Amino acid sequence: MKLKKQKVLLVLKIVGAILLLGIVLLFAFRNTLLEKVIHRIDDKLERDYQCHFTIEKAEFHGLTNLEFQHISLVPKQADTLLCIDELKTSVNFWKLLMGDIQLGKLEINKGFIQLVKTKNGSNFDAFLRSKKEKSDNNEVNYAKLLNRISSTLLDLVPTDMNVKGFAFKMDDNGNKVTFDFNQLALVDKKLNTLIQVTSANFSEQWSINGFADPRERKADLQFFNPKNDTVRIPYLDKKFNLKTGFKSIHFNLENLSMASGELHIDGYSSIENLIINHPKIANKDVIVKKARFDYRCIIGQRFMALDSTSTVQLNNIKCHPYLSYTNETDKVYALQLKIPKMTAQDFIVSLPSGLFRHFEGMEAKGNFSYSLNFEYNNNKPKDLVFESKLKPEGLKITKYGEADLNKINGEFTYRAMDRGVAQRPIIVGSSNPNYTPLNAISPYLQKCVLTSEDPSFFNHRGFINEAFKQSIAKNIRTQKFSRGASTISMQLVKNAFLTREKTLSRKLEEILLVYILENNRISSKERMLEVYFNIIEWGPNVYGIGEASQFYFQKSPADLNLNECLFLATIIPKPKGFMYRFDAEQKLKPFAKQQNEFLTRLMLRRHLLLETDTIGQNKPATILGPAQLYLKQKPTDTIENDSISVDEFGF
Question: What is the spatial distance between Cα 626 and Cα 551, in angstroms, rounded to a whole number?
Fold first, then answer.
C-alpha cells in the first residue's frame, strides 16, 4: 500500500513538473506565439474576407495582460472597417488553456468602427456572405447552440471596461449617423455610458446606466436621454420613413441558464412614451404611454417557446401570450393569446393614441375577456387551427367617438376617399334620386353579389373564421399578404366610417368597429346590405347601384337581368378596371366568361337559381350606357376592394 502511494505521488510530481515546464515555456515564448496567432488571423481574413488586418505592436505584460497598438482592418478597395489606437486587456489564463477567451479588463483609447455602403457595395459585404456547410439540421440542439453562442458573447464582455474616444459610424449611401462614446465604463458591475448621437437631422445624448454582470449573466439597465428629452432613433427616418423615439427603456435579464437540457431566459423590458410615425401604420403619431413585457423563454433540443406565464402590458391592457416553434418531424408554429376579464372602458382608454383615432372619446359599459388559439403545421396546412373568442359581459357602447355607427340607420352623406382625396358627396337616403332601397334591387344582383363577396353574410357576426384560416394559410405558404378575408360587413365599415388608406391603423379600427356593429345589433342585416349596395364603387366616379345600372345598362336596378348582374358582381374587386374584361370587339374575354359560368353553377348548386333562370344566358350582357366610352381605353388604376372573392375561395 505504501509503495502504491509513493507511485501516485511520483506521477503527480511528474505531471506537476510538466505543467510547470509548460507554463514556463508559454511565458518565455508568449509574445512569439502571439505574433503567430496574429499572422494566422491576418491570413484567414485575407483569404476568406479579402481584408488586411494589421497590428503595429502586440505584446504580453505578465501572463494574462495584453497590449495592442494601432489596430486596423481594411477591406480591399473599401473604406477602413476598424481602427483602434490603443487597446489593453486581460484574459482568463485557465480559460485560455482550454481554448476559450474570457476577457477581464478592457481599455480602449481612440478608434472607430465604421460601416460604409455605396452604390458599388459596402465595406462589410464579405462578412455577410454565409458559408455553406454540410450539416444535418435535424441534429442541431437549439438549447446547446444558443447557450454556446450566449456564453461566447458574454465571455467577450469584460468585467471591467473603460472606453474613451471611440466611435461607431454608419454611412448608408449618404445617410450618416455617428455614435461617439464619450464615456463607457463598467466598474464593480456598474455600467455608465454617455453617447453623443449625430445625424443629418439632429444631435443628442444617450445614456445607458445600471447593473451588468456578464459572468453571472444578469443585467438591469436603463436607456434614456440625460437631458430628460425624448430619445430619437436616427437612420430609420431617412431609410424607411419611420420616425420613432421614446422617453426611456428599462431592460432586465434575471436568468440565463441551462437546466435539465433546456435553456431558460427570464426577465422583463419596459418602455415609456413610445412614439412611432410611419404612413403604413397611421396618418399621425402613434403614442404608447407605458408598455411592459415580462418574458419567460424556454429553448429545448428541438423547440423554442415563450411560456404562457409571460405577460404583455399595454397601458391598462394585460395579456398572456404563448408562442412556440417545434421542429421535429414537422415544423409547427403555435400562438395563444389570452386577455383576462377587464372593463371595456379600460380597454378603450388604453388603446395607443393615434392608432385608433375613431375611438377617441368613445365610452362603454361592461366587461369582456378574449382568447386566441392558432396553430400551423407546414406539412398539414389544411389542419390549420384558428380560434378567436371574445366573451362579453353587459358590453354596451354609451358614447361614440368620431365613428358614430348609429348614422347607418338614417340618411347621411358619404364621401369616398381615393388616394387620400375626398370624392364628390353622395347622399345615402331618399333625398338622392339614385338611392335604391333593397326591395328595388334585382334579386339576381343580391344573390350574385352575396355569393361572390360574402355567402354567409346573413348568418355571421362580421367575420368568417374559415375565411381567416384559409387566408392565413395562403399568406404563410406564399410568404406574403396575398389573400384577404373581408366580409361585406367589413367593407361597409371601411367605406362608410373609415378611409381607404392602406394602414395598420385602419385595419385594426375596422375589425373593432365591425365587432361593435354586428354584435350590438346596431343595425339590421337588411339595412347594412342596402347601404352597402348604395355606397360601394362600381366604376370610374360611379357610386351606388342606382348610378351603376344606368352607367352600364341604362336601366333601373330592379330591371337588371342575370347576365348583367353577373357582370356587376364580378367587377366589384376592381371596378375602375372593368374595361379590361372586354376584347377589341367589346365582347367579354374568356376569363370573364368563365367567372360568370362558375358563379352561375355555384348558385344553381346552392339552389339560389333555377334552371329556368338561366334561359337565354348565352346572350352576354351588352354595355349600353356611358361605360361604352371607356371600353377602348386602358384600365385606370384602382384601389382594390378587400373582398372575399369567389375565385380565391371557391364558395
Answer: 5
Dist CA 483 CA 469 (whole Å): 11
Residues β-bridged to residue 359 = none
Q: Is the pLDDT of residue 269 over 90?
A: yes
Using an 8 Å Cβ cutoff, are 489 and 528 in contact? yes
Residue-wise pLDDT tens digits, 512-559: 888 888 888 888 999 999 999 999 999 999 999 999 999 999 999 999
Amino acid identity for residue 124 in this structure: F
- Asked whether the beta carbons of 193 and 181 are under 8 A apart, the reply is yes
Give the list of residues 6+ apart from residue 503 with CB closer than 8 angstroms, or none: 279, 280, 281, 282, 283
| pLDDT of 168 higher than 90 | yes
Q: Are 486 and 536 in contact (CB under 8 A)?
A: no
Is residue 400 a contact partner of residue 366, using CB atoms and an 8 Å limit? no
CATH number, domain containing residue 613 = 1.10.3810.10
Q: What is the mean pLDDT of the chain?
A: 84
**pLDDT tens profile 558-606:** 999 999 999 999 999 889 888 888 888 888 899 999 999 999 999 999 9
Q: Which residue has the higher pLDDT, 298 or 616?
A: 298
Q: Who has greater pLDDT, 166 or 59?
A: 166
In sequence order, what DSSP letters do the residues of 162-224 get, joined into one string? Answer: EEEEEEEEEEETTEEEEEEEEEEEEETTEEEEEEEEEESS-EEEEEEEEEEETTTTEEEEEEE
Instruction: List the domain range (segments joined by +) for residue 528.
Output: 405-649
Element (H, E) at 398: strand 385-399
Number of domains in the chain: 1
Q: What is the distance between the alpha carbons of residues 449 and 564, in angstroms, rounded to a whole number?
A: 12
Q: Judge whether 495 lies within some domain.
A: yes
